Amino acid sequence: MDRLIKCPANYAPLSPITFLQRAAAVYGDRTSVVYGRTRFTWRETHERCRRLASSLRYLSVSNNDVVSVLAPNVPALYELHFGVPMAGAVLNAINTRLDAASVANILAHSEAKVFFVDYQYVKLAAEALDRRAARAPVVVVVDDVDSPTGVRLGELEYEKLLARGDPASLPCPVRDEWDAIALNYTSGTTAAPKGVVYSHRGAYLSTLSLLLQWEVGSEPVYLWSLPMFHCNGWTFAWGVAARGGTNVCIRAPAARDMYRAIAEHRVTHMCCVPTVLILLLEAGRADRQPLASPVSVLTGGAPPPAPLLEKMEQLGFRITHAYGLTEATGPALVCEWRQEWNLLPVDAQARLKARQGISVLSLADVDVKDTETMTSVPRNGKSLGKIVLRGSSIMKGYYKNAADTDAAFKDGWFQTGDLGVVHPDGYVEIKDRAKDIIISGGENISSVEVEASLYRHPRVLEAAVVAMPHPRWGETPCAFIKLKEGSASLREEDIVSHCRSNMPRFMVPKTVVFMAELPKTSTGKIQKFLLREAALSIYKKMQKATRGPQGGALPPPICKVAEVERSNENNRRGVVEDRVLTVAKL
C-alpha cells in the first residue's frame, strides 16, 4: 500500500469547470443557453468561454485576481462562471440591487481587476466607480446580446472582447482544488456584508450533491428565476452543464415572463425563494399559462409556510424545500421526499415539505447543539438548539476577515446562527434565527411558527413577525403583513382572532402592521432587522401616546397599527419608514 502514489492518471483536482468541457464533448449539439431570440449550443458556449478566458489574460488577469460582474441572468453572466476560473481568476458576482456605495465597497474590498457591467446597470456602476479612491478596475460593458443598445462605459464591450479571444487557447489548469473559484458577498440581512470565498473542491462537491439529491436527470430545462449572483445560482450555474441541460435566461423573475418561458421551453426545473412562489401564485389570468407538465422547484432562503406549498402543488409545481447560507455554498439541507409520505393527507404533506430536511451529501455532518453545553439536543422535534455544520462545501472563510472567520468556525463547526429542532426521523426544522426568537414572559416564541399561522389566513399574502419591547412581558410578537388584493376591509381584529384560534394565547401578535410591501433583500429574504427597527419606533410612539396626565406611563394597550408607509427612495434602498398613521386600542 505504501508504494502506491498519486499521479495524473489517478488524481485530478476537483473543479466544476470540467463540466463544461464534458458538456461540449458529449452534448455539443444540444442547446445550452436560451435568451430571447438568442440560442447557443454547448459546443458554442465552450468556445465562447475559452475566448473569454483568453481575453481576460490579454487584460493581464492572472491567478487569483478577482473579476467582478454586475448583471442580471443573461448569457454573459453564465459564461463568466466558467470563463473567469478558466483564466485562473476568481469570480465575484455582485448583487444587482445594491446601491452605489455598497458596490464601490465591494470593488475596493475585493480589489477587482476587471469589472463587467450589464448595460442596464451602467449608471449604477459609474456612480460606484466615482466613489472609488483606489485604482479603478478595467470596465467591460455587457450589451444586450439579443438587441444591442449601444450603451457604453469606456471602450470595451463584451462581444467585441470575446471576438479578440482565442478559441483554441487552453484554460489555466487548476493545480490545487483548494484554490478559490468564487467570492460572494453575503446579503447583509443581519449585518454588514462579508466576502465569502468558495474553493473549486467545495463548488464541485456541492454541485454534484444537489444534482443527486434533487434528482436532476439528463437534459433538464432550467429556468433562471434565481439570481446567479446568489451563491452562484445555488451552484446550478455549473450544474446545468454537468447534466447537459438548457439554461433559459430571463432578466427578472416577473410572473408573466416566467409563465411564458415555462410554456414556451417546457421548463422542467427552477429555483427560487418563497416570494417568487407568491408571485406565481398571485399572477392574474392574463399573466398565467397552463403547465404542460409538472415543474420541479427547489425553494429556500426563508422557511416557506405549508399553506403556500400546498397551493403551489395544486398549480403543478413540485416543491422541494432546502436550507442554506452563502457560507455553505448555497443549500446545506434538503427535505428529501419519502415515498411513504405520499399516502398522507395533502396538508400533512405540506407540513413535512416545510421542514428543512437532512444534510447535503457534501457535508460531513450537521447537528443541532444545546446553546450552553454544545451537546446534541434530543431528536424529539421539540428541544431547541443551534444548527451547526461541517464539511467540504463550507466556505474557505471570509476574505480579509480573520476575526469573523474564527468566530464562524468556533468549536470545529460552522455556526449558522439559526435555531432548530431535530425530529425523530432525523429531519431538521428551523424555528428561527437566534436573534429572531421572541422571549415573552419567559416563554420562547418562534417567529417562524407565528408566521406559518398567519399564512394560513386566506387573505394574507406575506407575513413577518419580530419582537416588540413590552414593559410587562419583556417582548411580544409584532406582525407585519401584506394583504392580497381586494382585502382592504380586513381588520386587525380579524388577524388577532385568526391567530387565537390557531396557537397558544401568549404567541398571538399583540401588534399588527399592514404594509404595501415588506422590505426584502435582492434574493427575497425579508429584512427583519429593518422590521425590528420599525417595531421599536412604533412602540416608542405608543408609549408616548399613552402617557398619563402627570407624565406617568399608563398600562400598555394592545394596539393595532393600520399602515406603515415606505417612501419611494427608501423602498429602493430597502429601508422602512415607520410613519404610523393610526394607533388605537383594540
Class by SSE composition = alpha/beta
Shape: globular
β-strand percent reads 15-25%
Count of DSSP H/I helices: 18
- Say what the CATH topology of the largest domain is: Rossmann fold
Radius of gyration: 25 Å
CATH architecture term of the largest domain: 3-Layer(aba) Sandwich
DSSP strand count? 28
Largest sheet: 9 strands, mixed
* Strand order in the largest sheet: 2-1-11-10-12-13-14-15-16
What is the straight-line distance between the termini?
78 Å
- Looking at CATH, the homologous superfamily of the largest domain is ANL, N-terminal domain
Total domains: 3
By CATH reckoning, the class of the largest domain would read Alpha Beta
Q: Helicity, in percent? A: 25-40%
Low-pLDDT parts are: 548-586
Family: Belongs to the ATP-dependent AMP-binding enzyme family.
Keywords: Ligase
Protein name: Butyrate--CoA ligase AAE11, peroxisomal-like
Organism: Canna indica
Summarize the structure.
The chain folds into three domains: 40-173, Rossmann fold; 218-433, 3-Layer(aba) Sandwich (Rossmann fold); 437-585, ANL, C-terminal domain (GMP Synthetase, Chain A, domain 3).
Q: Could you characterize what this model shows?
A:
- With 586 residues, the chain is α/β, with parallel strands linked by helices.
- It folds into three domains: 40-173, Rossmann fold; 218-433, ANL, N-terminal domain (Rossmann fold); 437-585, 2-Layer Sandwich (GMP Synthetase, Chain A, domain 3).
- Helix content is 30%, strand content 25%.
- The protein contains 18 helices and 28 strands.
- The strands form six sheets. Strands 2-1-11-10-12-13-14-15-16 form a nine-stranded mixed beta sheet, sandwiched between helices. It has a five-stranded parallel beta sheet with strand order 4-3-5-6-7. Strands 24-25-26-27-28 form a five-stranded mixed beta sheet, with helices on both faces.
- Helix 1 (18-26) packs parallel to helix 9 (236-242), helix 2 (42-58) crosses helix 6 and helix 7 (200-213) packs across helix 9.
- The longest helix has 18 residues, at 528-545.
